[in-house]
User: Fold these one by one.
Assistant:
Number 1:
Amino acid sequence: MAYLHAVREFAASLLARVPTVCGLCQDTACGGKLCPYCYRAVMHSMTSGAPRCAVCRLELDPYGGCADCLQRTPAFDRVIAAFDYAAPGDLLIHRLKMQLQFTSAGMLAGLLADALRSSQPVVPEQMVLVPVPASRAALRRRGFNPAAEVAYRLARQLKRPCRPGLVLRTREGVKQAQLGRSARMHSVRSLYACPERLDGVHIAVVDDVLTTGSTLHGMAQACKAAGAATVWGLVLARTPYPVGGPEALRAAGQRGQLHSL
Ligand SMILES: [Zn+2]
Ligand SMILES: [Zn+2]
């Protein structure tokens, strides 16, 4: 067993050195990852030390607390996000979801794994990964569930189980990107359910983008109702405030307008 593990580690270290093309600038990179320049550019805002909400990772405005968590106490415990849903990282999400580049899911899972390793507080070691289930319409449109593709690869990298069947959609619901904040909250009520008890289990819900947090809130409500000990959100990208801060957010009326994927 130890021999097999050593062989796998050696093979992984060799693959990490194989020359590949950067998924963002198409320049030379290694092992399917971003080149060092693009890596820094994508991860910079999340690692710059700017004040963020301790729960949902929204970058805080100069005027006060987190607009999202103040309006609603989240059912989830914490969010870990790899980068902000802003240039240039938003292009990676766009390519994954709109250009159907699900082969980039491994590289994106790697960015999230890096964010997890450097996160404080530390995510429970015994967590079980659960992707946000896609609607039937989204599955028909894309042919795959981006959240699940990232979750499978992240689970492999973290050596944790991935159990997509732990949380199911109870109905089709409405496309979230078309809804405002309160409408999103209403639409996810009872949208998810757990077919089995999760007593004492630490759940990590995996999704591509977190905008208002309403999807994660709905998933966490279902998991906690089934007995989950904690529910973490592991997301590739966190949608920041629009330019102009919370005033612009209030004027816009709908945070859903920001994320149209
Ligand atoms: Zn690059
Ligand atoms: Zn918050």
Number 2:
Amino acid sequence: MKIKSVKAVSNNYPRIPQKTKPRENDKFAGKIATGAPMSTSLGGRYFHKNDWWDKALRKDIGVGIERDVGCIIEAEDGSWGFGFSDRGRITASIIDDYLAPNLIGRSIFETEKIYDMMTRILSPIGSNSFSSRAISAVDLAVWDLKGKVLEKPVYELLGGSIIEKLPLYASSNNTEWLKELGFKNFKRFISYGPRDGIDGLKKTEDEIAKTRDLIGYESDLMLDCWLSMDIETTVKLSQLLKPFKLKWIEDALISESINQYEILRGRIPNETLSTGEHWYGVYPFFHAASKGIIDILQPDITWVGGLSAIIKIVHIAEAAGIDVILHGGGGSAFGQHASYGLTGISMIECSGPVITPIGVPLEEKERFPGTPVPKDGTITPSDAPGFGLEIKREWFPDFN
Ligand SMILES: [Mg+2]
């Protein structure tokens, strides 16, 4: 069956009404990143307030939640698949202008070939970032369509669910609320960067110590640095936090600075380092895995190139003897299917798209209709065809 059309679309699906009022003491209520700092760390060189992130990336240049980009691919029999990424008009124009004309008329079952074609079409202008987002949305739509036509959930297309209960971890600085929600493993975001000096290091140590006290040593605890550190401060941090047995230190350095990560690895060989949510395509992952620079790879399925890229990355990681845990994997049907269908993925992250304000049940979280939420300490992907989203074609008008 052939592809009839490929379109970038806006997402106008009906929002889930949040019936429960957040408790008043929720200082993070309404915050997209559930309390991620971005204060003196990454933005600290130039900005001093939490809201710089929202302003710079979500409003002023018109991207963010309202500028998420969908992709609808229709087959000649009228069946259709849906994929998803973000970053607004730029991503949408790459889908419509570069990718769509080259994909119409191809078989809907050619996921491997279509992914390869897309990366080669975009390679001359750079297949990273926005290009990679466009590839992701299209690739996910092809997989969704393939599943729908074959009447199989995507994880079945991958070979079937590999585990009954994949361990979850939740990301937010409000650990008490995460505990109340039933999560057992926790990640915090760092609030102090290199410019905060010894005082910042002490404050981070204090935060981690308090969190460890709260959760005990039976739970995993991780620290996400949001690309904010430098080599020297990360080394000091790693030494300082040893007693608290962090499972990993994430995104310590700027994504592209793979040479710095290599030096960092040499300085703290026994620390578990993770990164990759801002890497695109398979090549950075192969480099990091083959050199032993990173221990846990964290690609984002809606940014890195879709499910086809994730499959390749997971196989690379398995061959290298390291782990893959998708960035925000629990927050989308796409990440859930990949995590349950690939043996090299060991945990599933529940972050901003999953976590609710204090007092609000997880079922009331804004999400694509049909996206499962954690229940009884686990997330189970939908077994409906494709990625199992319960969506209607008319909710997705052409992107403009
Ligand atoms: Mg992260």
